[in-house]
UniProtKB/TrEMBL annotation:
It comes from Geobacillus uzenensis. Pfam families: TauE (PF01925). Belongs to the 4-toluene sulfonate uptake permease (TSUP) (TC 2.A.102) family. The chain crosses the membrane at residues 72-91, 103-121, 141-166, 206-226, 233-254, 260-280. It is found in: Cell membrane; Membrane. InterPro entries: TM_pro_TauE-like (IPR002781), TSUP/Inactive_protease-like (IPR051598). It comes from the Bacteria. This is Probable membrane transporter protein. The lineage of its organism: Bacteria, Bacillati, Bacillota, Bacilli, Bacillales. Keywords: Cell membrane, Membrane, Transmembrane, Transmembrane helix. It is a multi-pass membrane protein.
Length: 295
């Protein structure tokens, strides 16, 4: 019963972060499952099956609150779905023990990138709109993000959201809402790929239902809070969590001496704390600068 409550809570937090940041549901959930010894293909399949429901709830909520660019959703869905389906089939053919360290390395890289993204690249101005994204730009983005999302259990949001934010033609809230809404098709395509390659009997329904339950509750809350939460601080927090848990997976996979664990964990926690402090300081500086400009 305690484990059930814990993982419902994890699903809730993962969806709350994802709905507010436009990323991290798959990365956070897959990281957790890998930590508990679930095979990469099974973990990714379970997360994507849960995401079929949670992303539908999240997309509907973002749509209701006006956080979605409908034209952009349509442009992202097709290449993203193709990439996710191919990625799912590719991952399913690889031995779990062989691919697990590489998936953790991928997730670890995303963790560092998420921290960098929200610590140093969060202050982009929307005052000078750039040209709208073309199909020639969105097709490779969708293919790459969909493929890496299926193979890593996360990647659609961490890749698509920062890339779309680099173009100043969309509001941040609409980037997040658009990425979350289009993710329904990506999760569905990846799930179909895993079902064909693995079979439904390989899906861990316990993980699916617990993650799903927490995500459904969090989806409308996240869509409402998308304008309120300090996204850069949440980004730093979730990035640090992903780094910490994936380093643990890699230390076990590489059979590193147990005496090294404490030193490695200590360095990560200190770096994480410093990043949080910088995020808070940047937030305060931003408020002071805004106040001076207003006066």
């Amino acid at each position: 019963m305690k484990k059930w409550i814990v993982f419902v809570f994890v699903g809730f937090i993962a969806q709350l972060i994802d709905g507010s940041l436009g990323m991290a549901y798959g990365v956070t959930s897959t990281t957790l499952l890998l930590t508990f010894g679930i095979a990469p293909a099974v973990a990714s399949a379970s997360v994507h099956l849960a995401e079929v429901v949670t992303t539908a709830a999240s997309g509907a909520s973002h749509w209701k609150f006006g956080n979605v660019d409908r034209a952009m959703v349509v442009k992202l869905i097709i290449p993203g779905s193709v990439g996710a389906f191919v990625g799912a089939c590719f991952l399913s053919k690889l031995p779990g023990d062989l691919i697990k360290p590489y998936i953790s390395l991928f997730l670890l890289t995303l963790g560092f990138y998420i921290i960098y993204r929200f610590l140093f690249l969060n202050g982009r101005s929307l005052s000078k709109p750039e040209k709208q994204w073309s199909n020639r730009q969105l097709i490779p983005l969708g293919l790459a993000a969909g493929f890496l999302d299926a193979t890593g259990g996360g990647g659609w949001g961490p890749i698509a959201t920062p890339v779309l934010l680099a173009n100043k033609s969309m509001e941040t809230r609409k980037v997040i809402g658009t990425v979350d809404t289009s993710e329904f098709a990506i999760a569905l395509s990846a799930t179909l790929g895993f079902a064909i390659s693995l079979g439904w009997e390989q899906v861990d329904w316990y993980w699916v239902l617990t993650l799903m339950a927490g995500g459904i509750v969090a989806a409308p809350i996240a869509a409402w809070l998308v304008r309120k939460l300090p996204s850069h601080l949440l980004g730093v927090l979730v990035g640090g969590l992903i780094i910490l848990t994936n380093v643990r997976t890699l230390l076990h996979a590489w059979e590193v001496s147990a005496s090294v664990y404490s030193a490695v964990y200590g360095l990560i926690v200190m770096g994480w704390a410093a990043a949080v402090w910088l995020a808070i300081r940047n937030r305060r500086k931003g408020k002071v600068a805004s106040g001076e400009m207003a006066s």
